[in-house]
Write a structure and sequence with these properties.
The chain has 270 residues and is mostly helical. Helices cover 81% and strands 0% of the residues. The protein is built from 11 helices and no strands. Helix 6 crosses helix 7.
Length: 270
């Protein structure tokens, strides 16, 4: 048998190979998010920014003799994490198009749905990591303030508070991921996310102050108001839970569905 006939009769090495395990895809996508220059410096900025905010809280607490609790430090940590961590959610998907690595990604794993699942899993891992950093930073700040002011630290954070903290960051990261998938451009997605997180909530507040009819509608469309309850660690009523679900569906799940649809349907050569 000739070499040509032997090759034609044998199964393709590619078609006969086993699918890449999903766990490996998740590990690869998680590494791709942070194992870059942008990802590395974002991690550094996140840690430094959170540390600075906690340090300012400790300094103000000591200088002004203000009693701060663990919950107060959690809010401070949330402010630092909320600025930088969502950018990682944007980079998790938008960098594929900005750096044109999607050409390689979807050739090595043609099933784009599996790639999206892996990316979403890595984003969920980021949310857990953000909560871990936030709780550790808040605990360190609370203990440091008590030692510096010679007082007893107040540990007023329970499991429900931490769970709300986790849900808050998960929503934020999923929203950032959705924008990255929808626009497929890192600069555009980051700008849109900043407008979403910093501009729209104050506009909702102003609209509720000016228009009386909007005041009743606001809790059902103002995600900042609904998510604020999570950061405060309060026990949500059934009405507040439905309002949180409604705003999450409007501002996170709908863009996420559209973004995933675009990734699944877009031309990888584009």
């Amino acid at each position: 048998m000739s070499a040509a006939n032997s090759w034609a009769a044998s199964p393709s090495a590619v078609s006969g190979s086993a699918r890449t395990p999903l766990s490996r895809l998740i590990a690869v996508e998680a590494r791709k998010t942070v194992d870059t220059r942008a990802g590395f410096w974002l991690l550094v900025a996140t840690v430094l920014g959170t540390t600075v905010i906690i340090g300012i809280q400790v300094a103000v607490g000591v200088a002004a003799d203000i009693e701060l609790t663990m919950a107060d430090f959690m809010l401070g940590a949330n402010a630092g994490l909320g600025i930088f961590v969502p950018v990682l959610g944007v980079l998790a998907v938008s960098s594929e198009w900005t750096q044109r690595t999607h050409l390689t990604t979807f050739v090595l794993e043609p099933d784009r749905a599996r790639v999206l699942v892996a990316k979403l899993a890595s984003v969920a891992g980021m949310a857990v990591a953000a909560v871990g950093i936030g709780v550790a930073s808040a605990a360190a700040g609370n203990a440091l303030l008590a030692a510096a002011a010679d007082t007893t630290a107040v540990w007023d954070v329970d499991a429900g508070h931490v769970a709300g903290f986790l849900v808050l960051h998960l929503i934020g990261l999923l929203t950032a991921f959705a924008l990255g998938a929808l626009f497929q451009s890192t600069p555009v997605a980051i700008v849109i996310y900043l407008l979403w997180s910093l501009v729209l909530p104050p506009l909702f507040f102003v609209a509720a102050s000016v228009f009386s009819w909007f005041e009743g509608v606001q809790p059902w469309i103002d995600y900042g108001l609904a998510q604020g309850w999570l950061s405060e660690g309060v026990d949500l009523t059934s009405r507040q839970v439905f309002q949180l679900l409604a705003t999450t569906a409007e501002w996170t799940l709908l863009p996420l569905a559209l973004g995933c649809w675009r990734v699944l349907r877009s031309d990888i050569a584009g």
